[in-house]
């Protein structure tokens, strides 16, 4: 049947009703698919909804949307979240079972985005100026990351005293994040037939001290801003061997150093080189950590208002991008990280309410 | 043009003239392609040539041919060689350059086969009874080996006091051969995200003592029948790792033990298990070594008659099959082992003459 009066569905921007509950708004966002690289429709919906709020100024860069209050407050804080999801795994549309909302992106992290939008709509006169950042391509390779693009092209848009990234933490405050560095350590020798091994030089045997040093390594657990971090230096791969009757002439050990945010990437590299002194060490990639910055006034007030006991964040997250801009940042969001990227991904509706309530308390106290 | 009087080339058996020089006979054999599995034509040619010699009785099993003198001598010796070659590498037909005969199989080991045939034809009344063994499929997997098949189906055909395998040794006597054993040594742990390494248990780190023991291992060099062997215990492969951010839960080290022939395979295995005491050791394959047996009268006479200083054979060869039958055996042949399996494979014509001359001296002294 022809419906000439219907709007062209593909070009229509889905409407977001920011007066519904955080749980309902999360479901609405989840039902707008936005796998990394396909965030245009959801970014349009967020932009249109924010432009209806007269207390905000709104900017757009690709599929990132930035909205700001401009009240001249003494402090400015960022509430940030990404709009994209991992690929859908037969888990759309969303559905509710008791207190749980199921579906792709419920936990990671459209529940956090819903809380951002609810705060944007319902806290028109916060005690601190707020910058809301919604960005694209967090779930894919770092060079495509929307927050990284904003930091490069519009660092002024991100300027703030403190940032909260609403990635799922089960509504707990996780401060900063550890850095990560990967390095290849290679030993070399000389091939020979294994029947005449003494004519060769076994590169696998020469890797013994590398593994010994790893096995003996005592990881540090520094306390920073009251949070205990926990470093780790580990082999994540080893390979060597030419054939079952050949003395191998090369052995590769790939190590991953996870380091507390009181080390810079340069200091982390120097440490790894010191541990493996005498060996050929090539750093293949690294990412800086992020200091929790909990001694900043905005951060201290945040911790007090949210009534949680902060813990250290061990995994690397986008808070490190804020840290690189000189902005202390924490993770605080309603999602359950244990269910991120899973087929049965879900989020607690009450955690969404709780997160919104605590942020509201902080921004209105 | 039609040639109705020509013989059907494909069914004709090439004629071998055993009165030519060893070099000429080698070239003739080389020009009959006999890649492993395709030895029928050359085996037919050898069988037909041997059946013309009235002092020999001839047996056939598949593409193996066995010829024997039956003079009732006090001792019986075997002269053995394989008829097959590795795949042809654009190196046929054979050609001569100075003293060198080039082509696939010249060194490994049709020059040795030519010497066997020359002795068969020209020493009708040897001082020791001789069993000539020509066999198939030496260059492929062990289960197809023609000598292994004969040892299984007709051990009586191989019965002897001493055996000479005419594999290329540059006309030097190489005694016995070392055994070989491969084992997998595995460590296990517990996976975890590398950002929280303390929740896991790194299997690669646990392999440190395996590599330490290998690096510290002091190989024995036992002297047997005056020959110095040289053992070796080596890692030939190592692998471990799940992903660049995961603590690995398994690491595999494959070791190869090359052992002197005074150890049985069981003793070799016990030794490896002792070295890696406390680890999970699985023996995946092994082959027994072969004692040189140079104290046997036939062997002592052989060494004296050939005027060479015997050395130990480190690599595994088919002499071990004779050893398994209780027959001491040595390698002694005209080929140059350094050119076996190579495109520019070749053999010295004078080494062929020299080998034949020394064997004749031994069998006619």
UniProtKB/TrEMBL annotation, chains A, B:
Swiss-Prot/TrEMBL cofactor(s): Zn(2+); Co(2+)
Q: Which UniProt keywords apply?
A: Amino-acid biosynthesis, Cobalt, Diaminopimelate biosynthesis, Hydrolase, Lysine biosynthesis, Metal-binding, Zinc
Q: What class of enzyme is it?
A: hydrolase
Which reaction is the catalytic activity of this chain? N-succinyl-(2S,6S)-2,6-diaminopimelate + H2O = (2S,6S)-2,6-diaminopimelate + succinate
EC number, UniProt record: 3.5.1.18
Task: Provide the GO biological process annotations.
Answer: diaminopimelate biosynthetic process; L-arginine biosynthetic process; lysine biosynthetic process via diaminopimelate
InterPro entries in UniProt? Bact_exopeptidase_dim_dom (IPR036264), Peptidase_M20 (IPR002933), Peptidase_M20_dimer (IPR011650), Peptidase_M20A (IPR050072), Succinyl-DAP_deSuclase_DapE (IPR010174)
Q: Does the keyword Electron transport apply?
A: no
Q: What region holds the Peptidase M20 dimerisation domain? A: 179-276
What domain of life does the UniProt record list for this protein's source? Bacteria
Q: In which pathway does it act?
A: Amino-acid biosynthesis; L-lysine biosynthesis via DAP pathway; LL-2,6-diaminopimelate from (S)-tetrahydrodipicolinate (succinylase route): step 3/3
Q: Annotated Gene Ontology MF terms?
A: acetylornithine deacetylase activity; metal ion binding; succinyl-diaminopimelate desuccinylase activity
Q: Does the keyword Hydrolase apply?
A: yes
The UniProt subunit note reads as follows: Homodimer.
Instruction: State the NCBIfam families in the record.
Output: dapE-gram_pos
Give the protein's recorded name: Succinyl-diaminopimelate desuccinylase
Name the source organism: Streptacidiphilus jiangxiensis
């Amino acid at each position: 049947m022809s419906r000439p009066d219907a709007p062209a569905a593909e070009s229509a921007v889905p409407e977001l009703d920011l007066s519904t509950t955080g749980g309902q708004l999360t479901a609405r966002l989840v039902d707008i698919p936005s796998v990394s690289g396909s965030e245009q429709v959801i970014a349009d919906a967020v932009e249109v909804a924010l432009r209806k709020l007269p207390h905000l100024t709104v900017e757009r860069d690709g599929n990132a949307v930035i909205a700001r209050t401009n009240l001249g407050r003494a402090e400015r804080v960022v509430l940030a979240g990404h709009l994209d999801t991992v690929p859908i795994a037969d888990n759309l549309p969303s559905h509710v079972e008791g207190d749980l909302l199921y579906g792709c992106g419920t936990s990671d992290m459209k529940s956090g985005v819903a809380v951002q939008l609810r705060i944007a709509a319902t806290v028109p006169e916060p005690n601190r100026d707020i910058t809301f950042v919604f960005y694209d391509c967090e779930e894919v390779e770092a060079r495509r990351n929307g927050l990284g693009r904003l930091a490069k092209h519009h660092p002024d848009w991100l300027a703030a005293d403190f940032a909260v990234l609403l990635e799922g933490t089960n509504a707990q405050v996780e401060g900063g994040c550890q850095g990560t560095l990967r390095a290849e350590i290679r030993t070399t020798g000389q091939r020979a037939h294994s029947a005449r091994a003494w004519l060769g030089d076994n590169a696998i045997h020469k890797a013994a001290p590398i593994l010994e040093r790893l096995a003996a390594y005592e990881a540090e657990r520094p306390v920073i801003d009251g949070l205990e971090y926990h470093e780790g230096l580990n082999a994540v791969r080893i390979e060597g061997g030419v054939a079952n009757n050949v003395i191998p002439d090369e052995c590769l050990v790939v190590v991953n150093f996870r380091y507390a945010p009181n080390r810079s990437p340069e200091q982390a590299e120097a440490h790894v080189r010191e541990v493996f002194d005498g060996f050929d060490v090539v750093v293949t990639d690294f990412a800086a950590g992020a200091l929790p910055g909990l001694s900043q006034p905005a951060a201290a007030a945040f911790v007090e208002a949210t009534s949680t006991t902060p813990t250290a964040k061990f995994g690397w997250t986008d808070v490190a991008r804020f840290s690189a801009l000189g902005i202390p940042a924490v993770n605080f969001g309603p999602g359950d990280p244990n269910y991120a990227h899973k087929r049965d991904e879900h989020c607690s509706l009450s955690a969404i309410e709780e997160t919104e309530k605590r942020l509201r308390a902080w921004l209105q106290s």
